[in-house]
Write a structure and sequence with these properties.
The complex is a heterodimer. By secondary structure, chain A is of the alpha/beta class. Chain A has 2 domains: about 150 residues, Rossmann fold (3-Layer(aba) Sandwich); about 300 residues, Dihydrodipicolinate Reductase, domain 2 (2-Layer Sandwich). Chain A contains 15 helices and 18 strands. Chain A starts with a helix and ends in an 8-residue tail after the last helix. By secondary structure, chain B is an alpha/beta fold. Chain B has 2 domains: about 150 residues; about 140 residues, no CATH class. Helix content of chain B is about 30%, strand content about 25%. Chain B has 10 helices and 15 strands. The chains are: A alpha/beta, B alpha/beta. At the A-B interface, helix 4 of A face helix 6, strand 13, strand 14 and helix 8 of B.
C-alpha cells in the first residue's frame, strides 16, 4: 500500500516524469483495481453505485481492466448480473450511453452467488478476485463496498478476513467502503468501529457521507478560504446565528420498518448536518492535505456543545396527514407496516454552539425532517443587523438580516441577501437576493457525489470521508439529546407539507430568532 | 427565443440585450466568461455554436459569434440574439458582418462593447486562425486563445505557426484531443517499477497535429529520444510505445475507438479510447484559463523529435521497419 508521502511524491511528479502539478488537464485515473459490491440488488447499488461506475468509465477515469464483482443470494449467471447493471446504467447514468465504453466495462463483470454465512461462497469470491488479478490485471487492488444493512457488517467482514480477501501485501491495497448509519449511539458506533478496524486498518476504511462529495460542499471551503470578502466577517462579531437545514418532501413509505427506532436525529443530524456544521465553523486548515483537513474538523467538533436545557433548545416532531403540495398523504403512524404506537421522530431540531473564540455565543440551529414543504438542503449564515441605521425607522421596516446561503441541493449555488433601495421617490430599503449558480441547473455537467467518492476510494484519497474519530465525536454531541428524548415525552405532530411542529418555532424564538423559509 | 436585428449597430444591440434582461429575466444567470467565436459565415457556424452551447452548460457564458461574410460588399451588420432554450445555458450573439466590417479591426471594435465586465474573455477560431493569435486585434482582447490546427486547410503549417508564435495563453484543440492518451500513459508510469523511459515512439496518420504534440510532450517530459512514425494504418494516433529496461509499455488503437494497453508481466487491458467531441474538448479548454505551460513544453519538444515513415502495415510493426 502506498503511504500518503509516497503518493505525494508521485503526484508532484518527482518519480513519474509524465506528471507535473502544473498539468491541470491530466485527470487522475485510478490505478489498476476492482470493486466488489455486496448488496447489488438494493436501491443504492442500482440507482447510485452502478451508474456512477459507468459514468466514471465514460469519463475515462477508471483504469483499463477494471473489475466489478457482484455478490448476492440471487441465482444469477454472469449475463443476468450484466443485464442488471445495464438497466441501472440505462435508467440512471448521467452521461450518454456509449457502446464501446460499456463493452470494455462489461468485460470486467463477475457475479458470485451466495449468502453471507456461506463459507463456500466467499471462497469462490476469493477465487473470482484472484482470477480478475490474473485476467484483467487488477493487481490485487480491491475495494469492498458494503451496500448492506450494518447488522450484516460483522459477518461479512469476518468472512472477508477468513477467506484471505483482506490481506494486503506489498504494493497491493484492500479497502472497505461503508455507508451510514455508523451505529445508533456512541457505544454502538465504537463497537462498529472495533469490528471494522479489527479487519481493516483505519486508513483502509472509507465511510461514505455522500453530502461531502457534492460540489457545493467542497465549494464552501473555496468560498471561505480563497476569498478575502467573507473570512473577515466569518465570526461572532458579525454572524448572528447559523441555520443548517436538510428538508425532504418524501415520507417513509416503504422504508418505514427500517426507520422505526432510528429517527431523524440519528439518520441525518449525526452525520450530514454535523459534518456541514464542521465545514462551516472550522478554522482554516494548514493545508488541504487530508490529515490537516480532518484535524480541523475534529477540533471544531470537539468544541461543539448543545445549548441547555434540552427541553427548551431541541424540538422533535412526527408528520401527520396533510397536503403535500397537490397530494393528500397519510401521517407516519398510518403508513403501511409502521408501528402505530411509535414515538420515532421524523423531524428533529437542535441548538448547538461552538466554544471557540471565533464562535462564542453564536447559536447553530440544525434541523431536518421528512414531509416538509419542499426538498432542500442549505447552510444559512445570518449576519447581525447594522449597529446603526442612518435612516428613519419607517424606511427600514422591510429590512431583515443580511444572509449568505450556501444551497447544497437542489439548484446548487450561493445566495447573498442584502438591503437595497426600492425604486421610487421615497427612501425605502428592502431585502433582495443575489444568486450565483455555477452550471448547477444542469446535472449532466456536474459530477454526481458518488462518482467523486468512488474515484477517491480507488485513488486512496481520504479527504472527503469521515474517520472513526469524527463519527464518535458526533455521537458524543448528539447522545444527550437522544437520551433526553427517550426518557420523556413524545414528538409533536405536524401536518405533512408544513415546515415542522410549532415547538420548533418556539424553540428558536426563545433565543430571539426565527427560521428562514428555505 | 431568437431575436433578429437586421442591418443594425452595436448600441442598438446592447440596448436590446438590456431590454431582454429586464422584460424576460432570461439573462439573469451568473456568467463566468465571454467566449468569442471567430469564423467565416457559412453553414459551419451552427456546429461551433452548438458545441459552445453544450460547453456553456458547464461554464455559463456569453457567446459572441463573429461570422464574417463577403468583403466586397457595403458595410453592414446583421445581428441575432439567442437566449433561453435556443442558447443552452448561455446567451448567444451572432454578428454577421459584411464589407469593411468583416475585417479584424472592426471585428474587435464590435466585440468590445459586448464583453461581460470584469470576467475572462476566450477567443476561439474553430477553423482558420490568424498567423499569430496573440497579435490579432480580437485575440488581444482575450486571456485565452483557442485555435485548432487540425481544422485548418494545412494542419502541418498551422502547427508550425502555433509553435513559432506561441505566447502564454495560447492553446490548440489538437492538444486537448490527446488528454486521455496522456492520462493513460501517465497512469501507466504511476505504478512499479519506477524505471526511466529509454526511448519512445508515436505512430499516427501523416497529417496529425495531435500525434505530433503527443511526441513533443513525451520529448519534453522524458529525457529520451522520441520517434514520430507516419502511418496510414489507422485514423489519428494509432500507437504509443514507451521503452523501459523491464520491457515496453504499449498503447495501441487500431480502429480509432478501442485502445489496448500492454505492460510487461501484466495481462492486456482494453480501454475505450474514442475520439472526443468538440463540445467535450471545448468544455475542458474552458475549465482552466491560466497559461498551459505543459502545452508550451510540448510545442518546444516538436523540434527534437525524429521523424520516420512506415509503409502501410500493422501499426505495431511500424517502428521496427523505420
Amino acid at each position: 500500500m502506498t503511504s500518503a508521502r509516497e503518493r505525494d511524491l508521485l503526484l508532484d511528479g518527482s518519480s513519474n516524469p509524465l506528471r507535473d502539478p502544473r498539468d491541470k488537464r491530466l485527470p487522475r485515473i485510478a490505478g489498476p483495481s476492482g470493486m466488489v459490491i455486496f448488496g447489488v440488488t438494493g436501491d443504492l447499488s442500482r440507482k447510485k453505485l452502478m451508474p456512477a461506475i459507468y459514468d466514471l468509465a465514460n469519463r475515462g477515469l477508471l483504469p483499463p481492466g477494471f473489475g466489478l464483482v457482484g455478490f448476492a443470494r440471487r441465482d444469477w449467471g454472469a449475463e443476468d448480473f450484466s443485464q442488471i447493471v445495464y438497466e441501472a446504467v440505462r435508467d440512471h447514468a448521467r452521461t450518454p450511453f456509449r457502446q464501446e465504453v460499456w463493452d470494455r466495462l462489461a468485460e470486467g463483470f463477475r457475479f458470485v452467488m451466495g449468502s453471507f454465512d456461506d463459507d463456500d461462497a466467499f471462497d469462490r469470491l476469493a477465487e473470482t478476485v484472484a482470477d480478475l488479478d490474473r485476467v484483467r490485471g487488477t493487481n490485487g487492488n480491491h475495494a469492498f463496498y458494503l451496500a448492506i444493512p450494518p447488522d450484516k457488517f460483522p459477518v461479512v467482514l469476518k468472512q472477508l478476513s477468513r477467506s484471505g480477501l483482506t490481506a494486503q501485501d506489498g504494493d497491493q491495497w484492500r479497502r472497505v467502503v461503508i455507508e451510514k448509519p455508523f451505529g445508533h449511539d456512541l457505544r454502538s458506533a465504537r463497537e462498529l468501529n472495533e469490528v471494522v478496524n479489527a479487519v481493516f486498518p483505519e486508513e483502509s476504511v472509507f465511510r461514505i457521507d455522500h453530502y461531502l462529495g457534492k460540489e457545493t460542499v467542497q465549494n464552501l471551503l473555496a468560498l471561505r478560504f480563497a476569498n478575502q470578502l467573507f473570512e473577515p466577517i466569518w465570526n461572532s462579531n458579525y454572524v448572528d446565528h447559523v441555520q443548517i437545514t436538510m428538508a425532504e418532501d418524501i415520507g417513509l413509505g416503504g422504508r418505514a420498518a427500517y426507520y422505526d427506532g432510528i429517527g431523524a436525529a440519528r439518520d441525518v443530524i449525526q452525520n450530514h448536518l454535523l459534518q456541514l456544521l464542521a465545514l462551516t465553523a472550522m478554522e482554516e486548515p494548514v493545508s488541504f492535505r487530508p490529515d490537516e483537513l480532518r484535524a480541523e474538523k475534529i477540533k471544531v467538533l470537539s468544541a461543539t456543545r448543545l445549548f441547555e436545557p434540552l427541553t427548551e433548545t431541541t424540538a422533535r416532531g412526527q408528520y401527520a396527514a396533510g397536503w403535500q403540495g397537490s397530494e393528500w398523504v397519510p401521517g407516519l403512524l398510518d403508513e403501511k407496516g409502521f408501528n402505530p404506537e411509535s414515538s420515532t421522530e421524523t423531524y428533529a431540531a437542535i441548538t448547538a454552539e461552538v466554544d471557540t473564540r471565533r464562535w462564542a455565543g453564536v447559536p447553530f440551529f440544525l434541523r431536518t425532517g421528512k414531509r416538509l414543504g419542499r426538498r432542500v438542503t442549505e447552510i444559512a449564515v445570518m449576519f447581525k443587523r447594522a449597529p446603526h441605521l442612518p435612516f428613519e425607522a419607517t424606511m427600514t421596516e422591510e429590512l431583515g438580516q443580511n444572509a449568505l446561503v450556501v444551497r447544497v441541493q437542489p439548484d446548487e449555488g450561493v445566495t447573498i441577501r442584502f438591503g437595497s433601495k426600492v425604486p421610487g421617490h421615497q427612501m425605502e430599503v428592502r431585502d433582495v437576493t443575489m444568486d450565483f449558480a455555477y452550471g448547477a441547473a444542469f446535472t449532466e455537467s456536474s459530477p454526481e457525489a458518488y462518482e467523486r467518492l468512488i474515484l477517491d476510494v480507488l485513488l486512496g484519497e481520504p479527504s472527503l470521508f469521515p474517520v472513526n474519530n469524527e463519527v464518535e465525536r458526533s455521537w458524543e454531541i448528539l447522545d444527550p439529546v437522544l437520551e433526553a428524548w427517550a426518557a420523556e415525552g413524545k414528538p409533536d405532530p405536524y401536518p405533512a407539507g408544513s415546515w415542522g411542529p410549532e415547538s420548533a418555532n418556539q424553540m428558536i424564538e426563545r433565543l430571539g430568532r426565527t427560521w428562514r423559509r428555505p | 427565443m431568437i431575436v433578429d436585428l437586421p442591418s443594425t449597430n452595436t448600441s442598438v444591440l446592447n440596448r436590446k440585450l438590456v431590454h431582454l434582461r429586464e422584460s424576460g429575466g432570461v439573462l439573469a444567470l451568473g456568467r463566468v466568461l465571454t467566449l468569442v467565436i471567430v469564423t467565416n459565415d457559412g453553414p459551419g457556424i451552427e456546429d461551433a455554436i452548438a458545441a459552445a452551447n453544450e460547453a456553456s452548460r458547464e461554464h455559463p457564458c456569453r457567446i459572441i459569434v463573429l461570422a464574417r461574410g463577403v468583403r466586397k460588399a457595403a458595410a453592414r451588420l446583421d445581428a441575432q440574439i439567442r437566449v433561453g432554450g435556443d442558447a443552452g445555458a448561455s446567451e448567444v450573439i451572432v454578428l454577421r458582418s459584411y464589407g469593411p466590417l468583416a475585417g479584424d479591426e472592426p471585428g474587435a471594435s464590435m466585440v468590445i462593447p459586448l464583453l461581460l465586465p470584469d470576467t475572462p474573455v476566450v477567443t476561439w477560431w474553430p477553423g482558420e486562425a490568424p498567423q499569430s493569435p496573440s497579435k490579432d486585434p480580437i485575440g488581444e482582447l482575450a486571456q485565452r486563445r483557442i485555435t485548432d490546427a487540425f481544422a485548418t486547410s494545412n494542419p502541418a503549417r498551422a502547427l508550425e505557426l502555433r509553435r513559432s508564435t506561441h505566447v502564454p495563453g495560447d492553446t490548440d484543440l489538437s492538444w486537448t484531443r490527446i488528454t486521455l492518451w496522456r492520462a493513460l500513459l501517465a497512469a501507466a508510469l504511476d505504478n512499479v517499477p519506477h524505471e526511466p523511459v529509454t526511448s519512445a515512439r508515436v505512430v499516427g496518420e501523416p497529417v496529425s497535429p495531435s500525434a505530433d504534440l503527443l511526441a513533443g510532450w513525451l520529448t519534453a517530459r522524458l529525457s529520451a529520444p522520441v520517434k514520430r512514425i507516419r502511418s496510414d494504418a489507422a485514423p489519428g494516433i494509432s500507437s504509443v510505445r514507451l521503452v523501459r529496461p523491464s520491457g515496453p509499455i504499449e498503447l495501441v488503437r487500431p480502429d480509432g475507438k478501442i485502445g489496448t494497453l500492454t505492460q510487461p508481466g501484466q495481462p492486456e487491458r482494453r480501454v475505450a479510447l474514442h475520439r472526443r467531441d468538440t463540445k467535450d474538448i471545448l468544455a475542458e479548454e474552458l475549465r482552466r484559463l491560466d497559461p498551459d505551460e505543459i502545452y508550451a513544453g510540448a510545442l518546444q519538444g516538436l523540434s527534437q523529435i525524429t521523424r520516420g515513415r512506415s509503409s502501410a502495415g500493422s501499426a505495431a510493426g511500424a517502428g521496427r521497419r523505420r
